[in-house]
Amino acid sequence: MKELSGAATKGGRDNYFYCAEPAMDLSLRNGKKFVHLDLKGAPPNIGYLFELIQLFADLGANGLLIEYEDMFPYEGELKVIQSKVQPPYSREEIMSIQEAASSRGLEVIPLVQTFGHLEFVLKHEIFRELREVDNCLGTLNPHRDQGVKLVQEMLRQVMELHPKSSKLHIGADEVYMLGLGDESNQWLSIPGHSVNQLFLSHVIKMAKGIRETVPNLNLIMWDDMLRSMTPETIKESGLVGLVQPMLWDYNPTLDVANTVMLLELYKSAGMSQQWVASSFKGSTIVHTCVTSTQRHVDNHVQWLKVASSISDGIELQGIALTGWQRYDHLSVLCELMPVSLPSLASCLQTLLYGSFNEEAQKKVCATFGTLEVEDTERLSSTFAGAKLAALIVQLASMLESEEIRHFHNNMYVRGWFTPYHRQKKIINPLIAEQIKTQAKMIIDALDSSLHEVRKEMCLLYPDSTVQEWVDQHVTPVLEPLQNLTRDIESVLSDVGLCIESMS
């Protein structure tokens, strides 16, 4: 990380990133900027969600892309797919979310998966037969009428509670294992049939179905399943005019030339109206706890380069800044929203200013005190979720420290308290006590920090989210230390009994 010329050193008042100036591009600077709310993990309490919506608007967003998954209040046969871990948002809350967004000029686009990433539906035994392959919970079998009707009913219910939304995102990304099911194999055995045609026919069926229910609805889909297709395949399928592709890439070193080529490919297929998607969190490592601003800013700088390189015939409709809370329905929680807000602000300002220049960085610092959430000395205490952000950073720093991560491999544990020593009960009590004392100090420090995190997190998230976050990110580090101290106490007790029996 480098600083701008003239900026103060780390200990000074200001600390800016250096970022090369990309070519200015008005399509992303002036276009729609949707913040993605991924509610399939760590759904915020409704009060905190309202605070976030206000903050998103203040930071320069003008839309929300909301992915409810099992947090939507589905009814009837679909009630089974509601979250059982915590109650879904109520119908009244779904409407109030839209009202809060509308009051700040934010357009709302719901996102409903219709092909892949249907784990929250297909994990249920009642829908098991609708999987493309039995051991793949995410992909729908496109040949079953029941599955098609199920997804169409999901779309209908979601749009019924979004009467003012003129756009709908139908997902359709990462349709793993498509074509490997028995019925697909049979279908593909017919001359002229292909996996690409199988994919396209299902998406078209979904698009036409919801269009019959909600005429004039603009539909968006993720683009990755289209990338290997020729323009002719896309054009001849009938997809053109039904759906607008959203090209996603979250890499900080995004390949500009290749991305431009994909956008041009879709244009040549007749899809001139296109969207793009970047990332402000949830795309680094599946278990990341603290967001890196620089990584995500770099991703947005690359997207600005893409936007300045495309031909005039491509009409960019806007950009979705994705904030993934899980990689999929069954994976661990990624970074929580509070620790990601400086990154989101930096990414939005990069788009608004056309680069992450000094003015953009000053704008972020005016709200958050710093660009990186890890800089807790400067981190503002006034933004929504600020206290929790600082506490998570402090706890994460402890959990990642060399002393804790490698405690079981330090000289004393490896030298005097191996599994062999425990089994044979041949230990040096003096050194065992030293190991126990050191481990207990670490456990007490972690427990104290964790107590503060729990107390603050409960104000913003459901209790189930708090417990899940602890179980996934803290327990794997804390539990081995607790087990070690218990083992030491047990062995010391046994050794003491042995000594007494020998006297």
Largest sheet: 8 strands, parallel
H/E series: HEHEHEHHEHHEHEHEHEHHHHHHHHH
**How far do the termini sit from each other?**
65 Å
Instruction: Give the amount of beta strand, in percent.
Output: 5-15%
- Rg value: 26 Å
Mean pLDDT: 92
Total helices: the number is: 19
Q: What does this protein structure show overall?
A:
- With 503 residues, the chain is an alpha/beta fold.
- The protein has helices at 26-29, 46-59, 91-103, 119-122, 145-160, 182-188, 195-213, 231-237, 256-268, 293-307, 341-353, 358-368, 386-399, 402-405, 411-416, 419-424, 429-460, 463-473, 475-502, and strands spanning 32-38, 63-67, 107-111, 167-169, 218-222, 243-248, 273-281, 315-323.
- The longest helix has 32 residues, at 429-460.
- The model is unreliable at 1-14 and 497-503 (pLDDT under 50).
Entry summary:
This protein has 503 residues and is of the alpha/beta class. Helix content is 47%, strand content 10%.
Sum up the structure in keywords.
alpha/beta, 19 helices, eight-stranded parallel beta sheet, disordered C terminus, disordered N terminus, 503 residues
Topology:
Layout: H1 26-29, E1 32-38, H2 46-59, E2 63-67, H3 91-103, E3 107-111, H4 119-122, H5 145-160, E4 167-169, H6 182-188, H7 195-213, E5 218-222, H8 231-237, E6 243-248, H9 256-268, E7 273-281, H10 293-307, E8 315-323, H11 341-353, H12 358-368, H13 386-399, H14 402-405, H15 411-416, H16 419-424, H17 429-460, H18 463-473, H19 475-502
